[in-house]
Structure formats: structure tokens, C-alpha cells
Amino acid sequence: MKKHPASIEISTSKRIFDGEILNLRLDTITTKGGKRAQREVIEHRPAVVIIPIDGDENVILVKQYRHPIGLDLLEAPAGIIEDGEEPDSAAMRELREETGYASRNLRLLGGFWSSPGFTDEYLYGYIAKDLFANQLPMDEDEEITLVRIPMQKVKKLIRYGEIQDAKTITMLLLTIHVFT
User: Fold this and answer.
1) Which of 45, 52, 92, 180 has the fewest beta carbons closer than 10 A?
2) Can you give the pTM of this predicted structure?
């Protein structure tokens, strides 16, 4: 039996699926209270999410189609950290790919687990200011539209459901309430 760092015993762990962006495994655990349970775990590489702010105090978001929910969403630029890549480099790469801008002032604000009830995905959150044009080619399967939103309208758009993506809401509220 493997011992989990949180004093949880993992008696079995079975890989169910290996994919390009995620893997799925089924763990049988013994809880702290001694109960046996099964846990489905989505393994996902760490990722970055960036809040770009232009010189006019507009947040630059991307609008793109998200197939699992069948909707176009307004989101902060984000993406997976490639093998051997550092989070700062991934953040700059994703910013350049998705918005066409680079930043002279890219700053890590912190990080968070996206949904730890079923995935191990960790996101590093950045703010990007002092932007300048510096496009990298987008991923072949991405169709993105840039949307500039005045910073003072962000809370209203969240409140009225115009921005529904959790990582974007988290980072926008961190930017507004903690780091500005």
C-alpha cells in the first residue's frame, strides 16, 4: 500500500485513460476515518492564466468556443506548461500566442488548484502590463477573438454572467481586490 502525504492510504491505483491533455486514473483509498472509497482522478499538467492590462486600463480577454459546454466563453489567456518549460516562460508564450502581445511587466500573483475534488491541475496566475505587439502563431485548433474590457466594468460583467470561466473570475477578482 502507498501512503499518501495527507495520511490517506492508496491501496490500488489503476490508469483508465491516457490522453494528450489529461489522464484518468481510479484510486481505491482508505480515508482518515478508516473507510474505503474510490476516487476518480484527472491528471493534468500545470497551467498558466494571465490577466493582460493595456495602457488604457482595459483587460484583454479571449473569446473562444468550449466544446464540453457548447458555448463561446470570455476567458483570460491561458494554457498548459510544456515539458521542460518554466511557468514564467509559459505565461509569456501563451500571452503572445493568444493575444499577439508580450509584456515588459509580467508578474506572478499566485496560484490555485482548479478543482481539487477530481483533478490535480494547478494554475499559476499572472498579471501582464506594459504590453507591446509580439505575436506568436496560435495553436492550429484555436479560433480566438480578442475582447477589450474596461477594468471598471469587470465586476459588473462577472455579476451578470457575461464572464463565467472560473479561472478568469478568480484572476480578475485577485487583480481587482488584492493587487491593484
Assistant:
1) 180
2) 0.91
